[in-house]
Amino acid sequence: MEYQNENQRIDLSMFQEKIALLRQQIANVIVGQDRAVELLLTALIADGHVLLEGVPGVAKTLLARLLARLVEADFSRIQFTPDLMPSDVLGTNVFNMKTQEFDYHAGPIFSNIVLADEINRAPAKTQAAMFEVMEERQCTVDGVSRKMPPLYTVLATQNPIEQEGTYRLPEAQLDRFMMKVVMGYPNVNEEVEILMRHHVSSAFTKLDQVNPAITQAELLQLRALMDKVVVDVSLLGYIAQVAMQTRISPSVHLGASPRASINVLRAAKSHALIMGRDFVTPDDIKLVFPPVLEHRLILTADAEMQGFTVSHLVTTLLEKVEVPK
Question: Which residue intervals of the chain are DSSP H helices?
């Protein structure tokens, strides 16, 4: 499989050092969660939003705040509740008595990295307010559209256990997220390390002393290189064939859309950059396929009763399709 001529190669040496420093800085604060961190970095460089799922206490919020700190990004956190209104998220126009005009007061959605905490607790009307801002990277209030900053990324969390008082995210909104990243419990050794760090100094989770590892400008430069990452035509066919398998599988009620395939391609190219390569391999595609499809596929009732999960099904479908040589 030929990827690229030598005289067309991209010099990634500087970015490799930055990414290595970024990973190290995260590891200094977050114990374990290596897969979640890798996928989160992949989505950030691919300009994609992420749905973080995990029980309370596995450092979802800490990871989001730490990531914003390390890339010199503005950070805002929105706690979604059943009484949260769209104006609480997007902002509103307030009449100014001095000027006799309406002044726009921007909501917390205007930031570089936005943490939408427990997004499934907000009613449908407030969830719908996120549609335009996530897809179009702009917000329209009273007929006036305002652009989001270039680095704009939404990280939304949801608790998979407690469903009382929650509103299920509609498929149209779930599709706005590039990936669903599940943060599980640490293993015994990792939990011992967590306890040891807290025993030595409970302030190790304080982020005030954390220095940025990469600037916004450098991160945007890395994003711009995605268009130059080479993908063999056979790998495009591989992505399309796996996506088609999800549509014809008897275990799947709703299969992957073309947008899902595009997100797989973008995530694979981003992961290649993170690994210091300017070309995509089949392993890049295999890594990102499950988290990209995790929240998009809907299994049939029979498949769910048999104990199938989306992750297991995607892994099975990947094995059915022949990998390009």
Answer: 13-29, 34-45, 60-70, 86-90, 124-135, 171-174, 188-200, 216-224, 233-248, 258-274, 282-293, 301-305, 310-320
Banded pLDDT at 164 (limits 50, 70, 90):
low
Q: What are the angstrom distances between the C-alpha of 132 and each of 90, 128, 178, 270, 282?
A: 11, 8, 15, 24, 33
Q: Contact at 8 Å (CB) between 247 and 196?
A: no
- Mean pLDDT score, 260-280: 93
* Distance from C-alpha of 136 to C-alpha of 282, rounded to nearest angstrom: 30
Structure tokens at 151: 């680095």
| pLDDT tens digits, one per residue of 216-256 | 888 998 888 888 899 999 999 999 999 999 999 888 888 88
Domain 18-216, CATH number (from 3.40.30.10, 3.30.390.10, 3.40.50.300, 3.30.465.10):
3.40.50.300
312 pLDDT exceeds 90? no
Q: What's this model's pTM, rounded to 2 decimal places? A: 0.86
Q: What CATH superfamily is the domain 229-325?
A: Magnesium chelatase subunit I, C-Terminal domain (1.10.8.80)
